[in-house]
C-alpha cells in the first residue's frame, strides 16, 4: 500500500481533491494530515490542482516506508512502491 501524507491546510485541499478523483485512490485523515493511499502508483497533475509552484513543491509532508516519490516537478507528483 502506498501512502502519501499532505498537511491539511487550505492551500493543500486541492491536491487531496484531485487525488480523490482517481477511483483507485482513497483520501482519508490522520491527525492534521490528508492520507492519500492506493495499491498502485499515485499520480497528481499540478495543473489540475490549480496550485502555484511554491505550494506545490511544499505540499508533501511524508510517504510511507513502502513508497517513494519518483517524480515531483512542475507538472506532476508520482509516488510508487519502494
Key attributes of the depicted protein:
82 residues, alpha+beta, Phenol Hydroxylase P2 Protein, 4-stranded antiparallel beta sheet, 3-stranded antiparallel beta sheet, 46% strand
Give a written overview of the molecule.
- The strands form 2 sheets. The chain has a 4-stranded antiparallel sheet.
- The N and C termini lie close together (10 Å).
- The model has no long low-confidence stretch (mean pLDDT 97).
- β6 (67-72) and β7 form a beta hairpin.
- The chain has 3 helices and 7 strands, in the order βαβββααβββ.
- It is an alpha+beta fold and 82 residues long.
- It has helices at 13-20, 46-49, 53-58, and strands at residues 2-7, 25-30, 33-38, 42-45, 60-63, 67-72, 76-81.
- 22% of the residues lie in helices and 46% in strands.
- The longest helix has 8 residues, at 13-20.
- It has a single domain, classed as Phenol Hydroxylase P2 Protein (Alpha-Beta Complex), CATH 3.90.56.
Amino acid at each position: 500500500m502506498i501512502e502519501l501524507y499532505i498537511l491539511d491546510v487550505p492551500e493543500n485541499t486541492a491536491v487531496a481533491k484531485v487525488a480523490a478523483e482517481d477511483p483507485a485512490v482513497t483520501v482519508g485523515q490522520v491527525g492534521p494530515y490528508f492520507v492519500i493511499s492506493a495499491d498502485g502508483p499515485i499520480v497528481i497533475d499540478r495543473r489540475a490542482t490549480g496550485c502555484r509552484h511554491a505550494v506545490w513543491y511544499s505540499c508533501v509532508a511524508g510517504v510511507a516506508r513502502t513508497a517513494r516519490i519518483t517524480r515531483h516537478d512542475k507538472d506532476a507528483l508520482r509516488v510508487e512502491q519502494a
